[in-house]
């Protein structure tokens, strides 16, 4: 069974061909590193999977069912969650409020549907515990470390029964110790059978946590292989074009 | 390991007292209370029933609009058109009632006019994507102009068969408390409830904190923004109707410059113009403090020309105080 299957995905913006015939299959619990230089088509591919815009050609299947996303919410409903590069957190709200942002739990009957603080705090605490992160649901996000902020953003993806989590440069702007924390969070997701697509520029991160690596160059997939059969040198050569294909 | 992680996650980090002490609203409230106590001892006139009645009624109008402004400021916007909207609603009530229609219809027409103003503001800001400052600055001009056009710049002072009811509504009392103050109290309670207990309230804070995050997490940002400006205009409309009843007449310069007093009250009460923070109680306290300052100058025999200096200094002091505290926190 596959969680996500892309077949012949192409995307052009006017005359610019951003993606050209990209196919990709992802199994449950797989951690796939998506690499490529700036402009290689990584973000375009991520945005197509996340439902920001539809592909020009090609089909997307989630759990062997064909899907057509027009809005990010639709992708989320089929079990695709995204951790954005800037994490999309509100500094002025608590960790729990951020986890449940846009999906707040309510209790009572209409018109007196009020926020269910107790359950949201409890559920957020459970999620942080599951991720083994020392994050307190009642703390404001603005007082948190980079690793805790990541935990909040990742906890958000665990609210629903998500199948696949896209992570866009999660380790780009944080300290070395926090990078290790984030990589551990990714392993926790994998242990629960969730597939992760990790978009990153950082070779060491990809090689320490991913099972498979996919390299894009100028909109085309030039490599898709197990990490054990590759090396940082080979990937660098693939990204820059020194090596045509692997 | 599991136990210590549990402990860390569930540890309470703030006591109620430290939470209270970290609130600008609390300190402003304290300042207002201290000012009232000082005035009680320094003058014979402050703590009289009459004076307190006047003070509370006077700040009620600014307070009502400040609640709407707080909603806008929390969402990261600003509404400069509230003074003009107040005037427009007052004129509409006056004209409808002087044409012989009942009070209910007069109020309904005024609120419809206010809602229209809010919808135009909101749609231009949320859907067309124009800056709130520009849109509402334009509306400041347009709404007052509409008031001039509708009334032909004539004072309205006869309100038809329901005149007594209107004067009672705005100028009367219930159980010895000025009616506008009661309206303010009810609206502050509703706003406080909405901010804390509803998803909508949560979302305006989220939009003010990080609008992009709110969009990405599926919060209906545009719809909420329109609602925010409608509420602001609606509070101005309600204040406009009440003011008409209190004054017993409407002229087209009603509420001129009021937007600045309202914004001052909101900011003194702890709302941050950058968005994401603010409380209903703060708006009320801010409005009250401005009125206490004004009243005390009169009672102490100081020229009212000083009023601007005092209110202005207080805005800066209140915000500076907040800055100093956040510096200390980041140390």
Might you state the CATH topology name of chain A?
Answer: Rossmann fold
Q: Give the DSSP E fraction of chain A (strand runs of 2 or more residues).
A: 25-35%
Q: Which word captures the global form of chain B?
A: globular
The CATH topology of chain B turns out to be ABC transporter involved in vitamin B12 uptake, BtuC
Instruction: Please state how the strands of the largest beta sheet of chain B are arranged side by side.
Output: 1-2
Number of domains of chain A: 1
Report how far apart the termini of chain B are. Answer: 30 Å
What is the string of helix and strand elements of chain A?
Answer: EEEHEEHEHEEHHEHEHEEH
| Radius of gyration of chain B, in angstroms, nearest whole number | 21 Å
Describe the sheet with the most strands of chain A.
6 strands, mixed
Main pleated sheet of chain B: 2 strands, antiparallel
Mean pLDDT of chain B: 87
**Integer average pLDDT of chain A:** 86
Question: Would you kindly provide a written description of the structure presented here, covering whatever features stand out?
Answer:
- The complex is a heterodimer of chains A (246) and B (331).
- Chain A is built from eight helices and twelve strands.
- Chain A is an alpha/beta fold and 246 residues long.
- Chain A has a single domain, classed as P-loop containing nucleotide triphosphate hydrolases (Rossmann fold, 3-Layer(aba) Sandwich).
- The radius of gyration of chain A is 19 Å and the shape is globular.
- By secondary structure, chain B is an all-alpha fold.
- Chain B has a single domain (27-35, 52-330), classed as ABC transporter involved in vitamin B12 uptake, BtuC (Orthogonal Bundle), CATH 1.10.3470.
- Chain B contains 15 helices and two strands.
- In chain B, strands 1-2 form a two-stranded antiparallel sheet.
- In chain B, a hairpin with a 2-residue loop joins strand 1 (173-174) and strand 2.
- In chain B, helix 4 (49-74) packs across helix 13 (258-268), helix 4 runs antiparallel to helix 14 and helix 9 crosses helix 10.
- Chain B is globular.
- The two termini of chain B are 30 Å apart.
- Chains A and B meet through helix 2, strand 8 and helix 4 of A and helix 1, helix 10 and helix 11 of B.
